[in-house]
Design brief:
By secondary structure, this protein is of the alpha+beta class. It has 13 helices and 14 strands. It is elongated, with a radius of gyration of 33 Å.
């Protein structure tokens, strides 16, 4: 029988000679509280994505609008849908390119739509490095109205055609179609990041709601699977914590068979028999040159390569927890040392894959 008469600090409460506080459903309640705090982050992120969708034409970037004529191009631009997909016919190379950081970004072409000349900037691959004439091509493009490069292109084009710039400007549409602006690296990365992070936020909200409603399916409980039936172990830990906890600090508990953490940083349960090594380290908190606090972190290494960190605790609380765990399981290695680290490596066969590789490489062919 473990002797729990020693009191390590005022924050550590043994329960042998006093009425224990109520810890009914404390673990599941802590899991619910943990995910209720975390659910705000993905919700705020989704609101941010919606705000970005209101500022930028994100919807048309993800699903380009189908364009058929110059009037549909103008309508799309005015409706904040500046990305579209269009089939162009009879494009003619102007002889001019657009450069970016010394590399060719695109080739300028022109075509006629509704009796107006439309400038089109095509990707080098689409234009086959400046093919003089393109009969038919379907592209994804961004609609640009009076871009900064338009006056220079028109001026050079007017010189080539022996025409005045004013006369040419009246025949050319104010809208330019740019394929590189729709299919380049930056828009692709933006769309990919927007979609992937948005889906991740939605899945996070759904999973957090599930864990709030059914804590037994949360990640903290599923991590008990290598040691047995997770739901059965949760029920056993709840019963032990509610009836006779052996030791309690503000957010760490020891029952007859389990070590339990229910802090704002996370919730964890681990059978005491599975703990291999415990140690602590200190962290100095300072603001500029002023040192205002020292906190301690309890580290536990368990079987099946599970590692727990319980940060921002007091030294007396952690010392008390370590002493209780060491007394409850005499096989636990206590304190950080190179010797203990090597012992844990041997126990968990951490070096076994490396040994297999070295043995394979040492074979003679």
């Amino acid at each position: 029988m473990i002797n729990f008469k020693k009191i390590f600090s005022k924050n550590i409460r043994p329960f042998e000679e006093s009425t224990p506080p109520t810890f009914d459903h404390h673990i599941t309640g802590s899991i619910k509280a943990y995910y209720k705090r975390r659910i705000y982050s993905p919700i705020f992120y989704l609101l941010l994505l919606l705000l970005l969708a209101g500022i930028f034409p994100v919807r048309s970037m993800i699903s380009p609008r189908h364009l058929t004529s110059l009037s549909s191009i103008a309508t799309a631009y005015k409706s904040h849908s500046s990305y579209g997909k269009i089939t162009l016919k009879n494009l003619y190379f102007t002889g001019y390119r657009q450069y970016w950081l010394g590399a060719t970004r695109g080739y300028y072409y022109y075509t006629v739509m509704n009796d107006k000349v439309v400038l089109v900037l095509l990707d080098p691959l689409t234009s086959e490095q400046g093919n003089p004439t393109i009969k038919n091509v379907t592209v994804r493009a961004r609609i640009l109205k009076d871009p900064a490069t338009r006056p220079l292109v028109l001026e050079r084009l007017a010189e080539d055609l022996s025409w005045t710039r004013q006369g040419l400007t009246g025949s050319v549409s104010h809208y330019t179609l740019s394929e590189p602006d729709a299919t380049g690296l930056l828009p692709r990365v933006f769309v990919l990041a927007y979609v992937v992070t948005g889906l991740f936020a939605i899945l996070s909200i759904i999973s957090y709601l599930l864990y709030i409603r059914y804590p037994a399916y949360s990640r903290q409980i599923r991590r008990l699977a290598p040691y047995g039936n997770p739901r059965k172990m949760l029920k056993e830990a709840e019963e032990e914590l509610s009836t006779l906890p052996q030791l309690a600090t503000e957010d760490m508990f020891i029952t007859q068979h389990y070590f339990i953490e229910t802090s704002t940083y996370g919730v964890a349960i681990v059978p005491i028999r599975e703990i291999l090594w415990i140690y602590k380290y200190s962290t100095l908190h300072k603001l500029f040159w002023h040192h205002f606090a020292i906190s301690y972190t309890l580290c536990l290494t368990c079987n099946k390569h599970r590692y727990l960190r319980c940060p921002k605790n007091t030294k007396s609380n952690i010392d008390g927890i370590m002493d209780y765990l060491a007394e409850a399981n005499h096989d636990i290695l206590v304190g950080f040392s190179e010797e203990n680290r090597r012992k844990v490596e041997v126990i968990q066969n951490d070096l076994l894959p490396l040994r297999k590789i070295l043995a394979f490489l040492s074979r003679r062919v």
